[in-house]
Amino acid sequence: MGVSLCKANLDDSVTIHEMQVKAFLPLLEKYQDYDTNPANESLERIIARINQKTTDYYLIKYFEDTIGGIRIVKLGNNSFRVSPIFILPEYQGKGIAQKVFEKIELIYHDAKLWELDTIMQEEGLCYLYEKLGYKKTGEIKKINDNITIVFYEKSY
């Protein structure tokens, strides 16, 4: 399908930041979650995360184009967290995220537990994660009157 992952490094921080802002801006405008939306995250914050020993960032490639990113946080005990994953708006809805998760699960083949969270009001995102085998944990976090975050896990 032409989807591949490329491990990111500090040189990719500006690209990651620009794509993350572009990908999350429509959700920021819709939900006005200024304190939690990745579109509001600073470049310095992304650089700090890339430098974390427990973080792996990957650029998502679609054929030759860099179209998104995914951050994997190593929690220990073969547990991992996806936070965030993003794909540029013009590439969304093409099945790319599903391929990215397949590839991530191959890279971290020893994973026993995956965690992620998403916007409860975004039914398409919830559907995607549930289709990939993620189950709601029962934990939710209300951010404001417009948006609630729902937490998911996938275990092996």
Low-confidence stretches: none
- Written as H for each helix and E for each strand, in order along the chain, the element string is EHHEEEHEHEE
Radius of gyration: 15 Å
Total strands: the figure is: 7
Count of separate DSSP helical elements: 4
Instruction: Tell me the name of the CATH class.
Output: Alpha Beta
Q: Strand order of the main beta sheet, please? A: 1-2-3-4-5-7-6
Task: Please outline the helices and strands.
Layout lengths: L2 E5 L5 H19 L11 H9 L3 E8 L2 E12 L2 E9 L8 H12 L5 E7 L3 H9 L3 E10 L2 E9 L1
Parallel strand pairs: 4-5
Antiparallel strand pairs: 1-2, 2-3, 3-4, 5-7, 6-7
A few lines on this structure:
The protein has 156 residues and is an alpha+beta fold. It is 31% helix and 38% strand.
How would you describe what is shown here?
The chain has 156 residues and is α+β, with helices and mostly antiparallel strands. It has a single domain (3-155), classed as Gcn5-related N-acetyltransferase (GNAT) (Aminopeptidase). It is built from four helices and seven strands. The protein has a seven-stranded mixed sheet, with helices on both faces. β6 (135-144) and β7 (147-155) form a beta hairpin. α1 crosses α2. The longest helix has 19 residues, at 13-31.
Name some characteristics of this structure.
156 residues; alpha+beta; Aminopeptidase; 7-stranded mixed beta sheet; 4 helices; 7 strands
